[in-house]
Amino acid sequence: MSNQVQAAVRELLPQLAERAKSVDEKGRIPDDSIRDLIGSGLFRMLQPRRFGGTETDPSRFYEAVRAISGACASTGWVAGILGVHSWHLGLFPESAQREVYGRDQDTLVCSSYAPVGRITPVEGGYEVSGRWGFSSGCEFGSWALLGGLVVGAEGKPVDFMTLLVPRQDYEIRQVWDSMGLRGTASDDIVIERAFVPEHRTVRNFDQAQLRTPGRKVNPGPLYRMPFGTIFTSAVTACVIGVVEGCYESYVEQMRDRIRLSLGGGRFVEDQFAQVSVARAASEIDAAALQTDRNIREMYEFAVKNETIPMELRLRARRDQVRGTERAIEAIDILFKTAGGNSLHRGHALERAWRDAHAGSLHVANDVERGLSMYGRGVFGLTVEDNLV
């Protein structure tokens, strides 16, 4: 099934690339693109089989996200984020999953995981209020996964949870006006005292310990994988994909370029240009190969129902943040050597440069945090982080 999805996605790439400039200018992904992605089966790749999903090897999902991002960064970003939520929902109690997929197995779920919501325990569940930012593709979601702090009797935080909230319980505030990833429409979500039943919540500590309730009904290897790897890799896959697509366009455009200064001559015969292309290509390959290796090895442990070593989880996070960093280094090399024409607003390289840098600012791409966790583990220190 994953091969069929890959083929369907490849067929969509020319259309998505043709729409990319308009997506950037209008600040919105067209409904047709989302419908096309739904039809391709992309959003079902990480979805539980019991609700129409295919529970695909996650490395195949990231390959698809990279390909889409190379055609249109905003579409690839939203595809990766919404697509990974199909997996996250599989960690929730069965009743929550059934509420989402019971009527429509193509239902999409958005998110904003930052713990900015105020969660107060009440009979049967929780009362939640707050305002969450950066909810990419939220206009396409019928539900939202939102982070929040549980407040105890003394008004102090006592727990960190993720809640599943239906569209009728929250308002979307259109505030997104960014320099990159403009079409993601990563707007704000606002809630005023909504009730969330207990079965629509997951404790982040339990999630990090790989003991979520959804694993009882979704016993496949996909749901034995850690959130800190699955979610963050979706973010990095987009950034790498944007730069991969940019590299291909760069090489194609530069083959016939004639320098109008510095003595003239063909660009491709300049040794410095050749070295720059080689450096950029090496950084892109390293970013993709390392992240793919870690996902593959981790999935092999999950398939054998063996505990995934903490060393591997930390290495995956190390290489995930470095993957983004390497992609940014590569696109900076390309941008510096592309010449003045690439400065024009809307130029493919200019747009890719903005999109890649915007994606690199996601909290999942905090390089120092990811590397510090790895270093702590190497030195035998305790690592306590929900994103590992």
In short:
The protein is α+β, with helices and mostly antiparallel strands and 388 residues long.
Widest sheet: strand ordering: 5-6-2-1-3-4-7
SS-based structural class?
A: alpha+beta
Number of strands: 7
Name the CATH class of the largest domain. Answer: Mainly Alpha
Q: What layout of secondary structure does this protein have?
A:
Elements: H1 2-26, H2 31-40, H3 58-71, H4 73-89, H5 94-101, E1 109-122, E2 125-135, E3 143-151, E4 157-166, E5 171-173, E6 187-197, E7 201-203, H6 204-208, H7 227-254, H8 271-303, H9 310-337, H10 348-360, H11 367-378
Parallel strand pairs: 1-3
Antiparallel strand pairs: 1-2, 2-6, 3-4, 4-7, 5-6
Helix pairs in contact: 1-2, 1-3, 3-4, 3-7, 4-7, 7-8, 7-9, 7-10, 8-9, 9-10, 9-11
Describe the structure.
The chain has 388 residues and is of the alpha+beta class. The chain has 3 domains: 2-103, Butyryl-Coa Dehydrogenase, subunit A, domain 1, CATH 1.10.540; 109-202, Beta Barrel (Butyryl-CoA Dehydrogenase, subunit A, domain 2), CATH 2.40.110.10; 225-378, Butyryl-CoA Dehydrogenase, subunit A, domain 3 (Up-down Bundle), CATH 1.20.140.10. The protein has helices at 2-26, 31-40, 58-71, 73-89, 94-101, 204-208, 227-254, 271-303, 310-337, 348-360, 367-378, and strands at residues 109-122, 125-135, 143-151, 157-166, 171-173, 187-197, 201-203.
Label this structure with key terms.
388 residues; alpha+beta; Butyryl-Coa Dehydrogenase, subunit A, domain 1; Butyryl-CoA Dehydrogenase, subunit A, domain 2; Butyryl-CoA Dehydrogenase, subunit A, domain 3; 3 domains; seven-stranded mixed beta sheet; 11 helices; globular
